[in-house]
Design brief:
alpha+beta; binds magnesium ion; four-stranded antiparallel beta sheet; binds adenosine-5'-diphosphate; 8 helices; six-stranded antiparallel beta sheet
């Protein structure tokens, strides 16, 4: 996504009265800043599935795209580990009916490649009225959600700050592979933190337009960090 595409996505979102960008747009922005996202395609009808599953590598993940659904898992609207086109089509059918039964309208669907297991981290940021853009990091979704184990810094951060943020987390040992976990790439994680919170990062680049960014989770494996979810909350327009 180029700067122009980004402005266009924001404009469309605002004219539609949205408070947030949809997941594909959020991921396209992350990718334009050099952050890895799973290869994905947008599905508008069942007829798209044959071509899409042929282009992407199995196993697949299916998700709904809808402004009415913020936490997709709460609605059963994320299905991982789908082996082939038939499984994706079945999952899509089931998801479509269960959402429709709850009166929820799907705008479209997302099929993406499933990322190998790794340490699920949370990276994000807010634009503070006083301090401006601030970047946030947490390790392990559960530690973030249950214990609020996160670190914040004012942007822009340098490599030193990124390392310090990770070191001060209570769950820091998870990175080196505590409790039978595979070790996760510190390098890859620091790189994403800098791409989000650094001088040329997403938060500095979007601060006027975006009030909050949430990448939950960023899956960090032995050699890569991949953003599998992305939420960009827009600054309310003046
Ligand atoms: P939610 O809106 O519920 O946060 P997510 O897109 O974060 O939905 O997906 C929920 C969970 O499903 C993630 O926390 C992750 O464990 C798993 N998941 C989602 N997408 C992928 C993917 N592409 N590869 C592997 N796991 C995924
Ligand atoms: Mg998520």
């Amino acid at each position: 996504m180029t700067e122009t595409d980004f402005r266009a996505a924001l404009h469309v979102a605002r004219t539609q009265g949205r408070k947030a960008l949809d997941e594909p747009s959020g991921k396209a922005i992350l990718a334009s800043f050099g952050i890895r996202v799973p290869a994905f395609r947008i599905v508008r009808s069942d007829a798209d599935l044959a071509a899409i599953t042929a282009e992407l590598r199995s196993p697949y993940v299916l998700k709904v795209v809808s402004a009415e659904v913020v936490h997709k898992s709460d609605f059963g609207a994320v299905k991982v580990g789908l082996k082939d086109q038939i499984e994706v089509a079945r999952a899509l059918d089931a998801m479509r009916s269960s959402l429709a039964a709850r009166g929820i309208r799907a705008e479209c669907w997302l099929v993406e490649e499933m990322v190998p297991a790794g340490l699920e981290c949370v990276i994000g940021g807010v634009v503070d009225p006083e301090f401006g853009p601030m970047v946030m990091a947490g390790l392990g979704g559960i530690l973030v959600e249950l214990l609020g184990d996160v670190a914040f810094r004012i942007c822009p951060i340098e490599r030193f700050d990124a390392l310090e943020m990770l070191r001060e987390l209570r769950g820091a040992a998870l990175l080196s592979g505590a409790r039978g976990h595979e070790p996760a790439s510190l390098e890859a994680l620091v790189d994403v933190l800098l791409k989000v919170g650094g001088k040329q990062g997403v938060l500095m680049g979007c601060a006027g337009e975006v009030s909050e960014i949430d990448v939950n989770p960023l899956i960090v494996t032995r050699d890569a960090a991949i953003a599998v979810d992305a939420r960009f909350i827009l600054t309310p327009s003046a």
